Amino acid sequence: MDIAPLIQEIRAFLHTTFAEIDLWFDKDPDLRNDQPQNGGWTINQILEHIGLTNHFLLILIEKGTQKALNNANDLDLKTALENYHFHKDQLTEIGLHKSFDWIRPEHMEPTGEKTLPEVRNQLKDQLAQCLNCLDLLKNGEGALYKTTMTVNNLGKIDVYEYLYFLGQHGQRHLTQMRRNAEAYNL
């Protein structure tokens, strides 16, 4: 399998997702701070949550990147890529808001401790971290290391799938922010 198109697709998806998220920082402050009637998070809280979740996912992604690069010394990359399957359908479901029950850990809940500019800068830095991992894994090495993802019973996923998961998580919350905005405008 030629891995280059997949890496390019993930790169473009991350760029698009982070750019769409970034637009929400410039929305009207009253909209961003509006508490939904259903008791859900404000847009500012959602933005903070995305940054928190990315932080913890990137710890795993960066460790996985290093382990995948180390595995490239011992495992046959060519054989791994011949049998490679990217689980796009399962991962795309992550991006659908309310597509399944998702109990997030308490440490990923927004606290309001970071200012909005700090959250925005954090997200910009996180995109750079993601792209750096893709640069390091440019030859397909990301397929050489898998770790368990319990969300939606995904099971063992590789580093490329983790990066795509991170982007899909952002898409999930873009839908949530759009719904908040629709309710606010009614």
Care to describe what's here?
The chain has 186 residues and is mainly alpha-helical. The protein has one domain: Four Helix Bundle (Hemerythrin (Met), subunit A) (Up-down Bundle). The protein contains seven helices and two strands, in the order H-H-H-H-H-H-E-E-H. It has helices at 4-23, 29-32, 43-71, 77-82, 88-92, 116-136, 159-185; strands at 146-149, 155-158. A two-stranded antiparallel sheet has the order 1-2. Strand 1 and strand 2 (155-158) form a beta hairpin. It is elongated, with a radius of gyration of 17 Å. The termini are far apart. The model has no long low-confidence stretch (mean pLDDT 92).
List keywords for this structure.
single chain, 186 residues, mainly alpha, Four Helix Bundle (Hemerythrin (Met), subunit A), two-stranded antiparallel ribbon, elongated
Indicate the topology.
Blueprint: H1 4-23, H2 29-32, H3 43-71, H4 77-82, H5 88-92, H6 116-136, E1 146-149, E2 155-158, H7 159-185
Helix pairs in contact: 1-6, 1-7, 3-6, 3-7
A few lines on this structure:
The chain is mainly alpha-helical and 186 residues long. It is built from seven helices and two strands; from the N terminus they run ααααααββα. It is 60% helix and 4% strand.
